[in-house]
Amino acid sequence: MNLIETLDNTSSFLSEFEERVRDVDPVIKGVLFSEILFLQASLGGRPPSQILESGRAQGQSTKLLSLCFPDSQVISVEHNSSSPDAAIALERLASLPNVAPLFGDSRIVLPALVQQNSIALIDGPKGLRGLPLAGRLLATGKVRAVYLHDFYQGLPERRYIERHIPGVFFSDNPDFVRQSKHLDGPCWTTNSKAGKASGRPYHFAGQDQESYGPTMACIPHLPDVNYRRLLNRIHLARVVSKLQDLFLRAA
């Protein structure tokens, strides 16, 4: 599983993907359609038996995963059951038989449920806070890959995983974007009509950026990597980051 294989697979999966997601109406708080195609293309012709999702907001990624992997069990964990998004997501997902929408702390729930031939999508907790969960899941040896959302270029967490996480690659690769960006027209239109600051490509929070969109990072499980040691390094990086934040606030 790597970027070259993903690019090679993208055209093969494109027509089927378009057919499966044709009737999905995008919501403001949701992944781009192309990002789920990126996930599917990276897996090639081997669908997972189980998809673990941390953070579902209004259920856009959950629904897309369910439709693209109808034979996979999708276990989606959302932390805040009282959020207005929670009710929207439950309504959107009610008719999908392979989805189990749960509430709780995904850092506790998902490692306890992981099975062989799984993948994970972490869309919360964000940034460096999501990396310990990624490390724990990869360390089980049962997870083929972990996907992290909102890792666009320029973020400190993007620089960290590029430097320290073996094999990582991203959905903002220009060759992938060229093949898949037409899928996201409805997403950009929905965001723009809602006045969202990231309502167009290469733009986020009111500023231009190098990445095409929010960006999915793929961390494949590599047999020669010691993920428990990597997890310790991630914990240390989080401690250093917290200390730096405290120092800056005190300055």
Write structural notes for this entry.
The chain has 251 residues and is α/β, with parallel strands linked by helices. Helices cover 45% and strands 16% of the residues. The chain has 10 helices and 9 strands. It has helices at residues 3-20, 33-43, 60-68, 84-93, 106-113, 131-139, 156-164, 174-180, 185-193, 227-250, and strands at 50-54, 73-78, 99-103, 118-122, 143-149, 169-170, 203-204, 207-208, 216-220. Strand 7 and strand 8 (207-208) form a beta hairpin. Helix 1 packs parallel to helix 8 (174-180) and helix 5 (106-113) packs parallel to helix 6 (131-139). The protein starts with a helix and ends with a helix.
Describe the structure concisely for a colleague.
This protein is α/β, with parallel strands linked by helices and 251 residues long.
Top keywords for this entry?
9 strands, 10 helices, 251 residues
Layout of secondary structure:
Layout: H1 3-20, H2 33-43, E1 50-54, H3 60-68, E2 73-78, H4 84-93, E3 99-103, H5 106-113, E4 118-122, H6 131-139, E5 143-149, H7 156-164, E6 169-170, H8 174-180, H9 185-193, E7 203-204, E8 207-208, E9 216-220, H10 227-250
Helix pairs in contact: 1-2, 1-8, 5-6, 6-10
Give the amount of beta strand, in percent: 15-25%
Tell me the structural class: alpha/beta
Q: Please report the total strand number as a whole number.
A: 9
Please tell me the overall pLDDT: 92
Parts with pLDDT < 50 across at least 5 consecutive residues: none
SSE arrangement, N to C: HHEHEHEHEHEHEHHEEEH
**What order do the strands of the largest sheet run in, or round the barrel if closed?**
3-2-1-4-5-9-6
Biggest sheet details: 7 strands, mixed
Shape: globular
Helicity, as a percent range: 40-55%
Q: Radius of gyration from the CA trace?
A: 17 Å
Number of helices: 10
- End-to-end separation: 45 Å
